[in-house]
Amino acid sequence: MLTHYIHCHQKYDTNKGGSVGYLSSLFEAFTLFNQNQLTKQGIKCEFVFPSENKTNDLLKNCTDSRFQYTQDYKIKTVSKNLLQQRQRWFKDIIPQSEFDKIKANEISSIHIHGAYNFLPLYNALVKKGIESRVVKILTTHNPYQPTMEDMYLTCRTVKWRNDDKNMFFYYLNERDKWAFTLADCLFFPSEESLEGYYKLWNDFPKLIKNKKIYFCPTGTKTKNIIENKNLLRAKLKIPAKAKVFLYLGRFIDVRGYDILIQAAQKILTHSDDIYFLVVGETGEIPIHSKQYIQIPYTQNPQDFINMADCCLCPNRASLFDLSMIEILSLKKPLICSYVGGYRWLENKTNGMLYIQSESVDSLIEAINKFVSLSDNEIGTMGENNFKLYQSHLTLEQFANNYCDTIDSIYGDFKISENIYSLSFCDKNHLFPLSKQPITTNTKKNKKLKKLLRKPHLFFIDFFKKRFKK
Description:
Blueprint: E1 3-7, H1 18-33, E2 44-48, E3 57-58, H2 80-87, E4 92-93, H3 96-99, E5 107-113, H4 115-128, E6 135-139, H5 146-155, H6 162-182, E7 185-188, H7 195-200, H8 204-207, E8 212-215, H9 229-235, E9 243-248, H10 257-267, E10 274-279, E11 292-295, H11 301-307, E12 310-313, H12 322-329, E13 334-337, H13 340-343, E14 352-355, H14 360-372, H15 375-392, H16 395-412, H17 443-453, H18 455-468
Parallel strand pairs: 1-2, 1-5, 5-6, 6-7, 7-8, 9-10, 9-12, 10-11, 12-13, 13-14
Antiparallel strand pairs: 3-4
């Protein structure tokens, strides 16, 4: 039986966003509406989730001679450990426990999520000797070239030397270029989702030339409300008649967090009946007002969406946010930038007010317009959003659309069981794992691992502890 593998690098978790949240929702969709995990054309969909989060293994050498140049970075003044960490990306391979789950005599295609996951899986296919006969489908969950978001997050809290920053960019960019070059086709939620790639990545048109791109909208389930909205308002000391605007997500520029803060500061100087509820991260509170409420990460975002009057999404770019779907499913209007995945809503619902991206004044104007709407108008916006959710974005729609898209890929690539008659040669012996030094889990080693893998978090903790002293 033809088998399509769907790989996730972390364990199942529907409370996460990004690739893990996407794949967890997709698995949930199959569990509820396609338990035999077969497409209409009889292709088996095989999910591969690790039972626990693990780091990749490391090969002794590159599997592809075309990667060799990445091991010879010329600038000698960069930090050695940081350089080695990035050079290993091209020799990374998925952990042995996950490697063993891929059956060489069964696999016919694989859906890879994230540029950072492409090379470890590509190397696994090469090591098994089957790379050339497996269709590699790539989805990146960034609103533009992954390098841009990774550079922002890496440099967000740490002031790196310029040599190191240039090295970071070089390796991230090479990683992305190889992922899109070696992928046989691309898989995205909507045509609008590619906006940021075309606008901000000069190499993108060349990389995808002659590649097929497939589109399949994401879906999520409607989450059950845990806490009554009136009780939640009372707990947060929000008056019953106040208008509550919710921002849900990471406090980062791509989500327009800085635009929100500037707009809120201006509005709160003259308005007593507008409250801003910001949910998603810990950190310094930028506005000290009873009308600005900041809450860290929550496992029940649906409660805050249900309690709010309107949700704010002032993004600079957007792929196809899971939070957007969740807002629609809970009958809430939204104010959003006319970018990426949010553009997909156009002509499908009137439950949103569009704003100009990166414009504080545009966001303020939209908030003031929303406040002037009647309760009936606001209720109609929410109902229309829910109708769109029901017709396009439920878990059942997600499972059906996904299977139809896989069938289309198999038809276009003319994949049949004839591929199993092709010979292949296991190359496991040609690509041994690198001998890693055995380290104990001491406090010092844990700190070293954190420095190498998540340097920005290491330095945040480092300075927090010293300031406390």
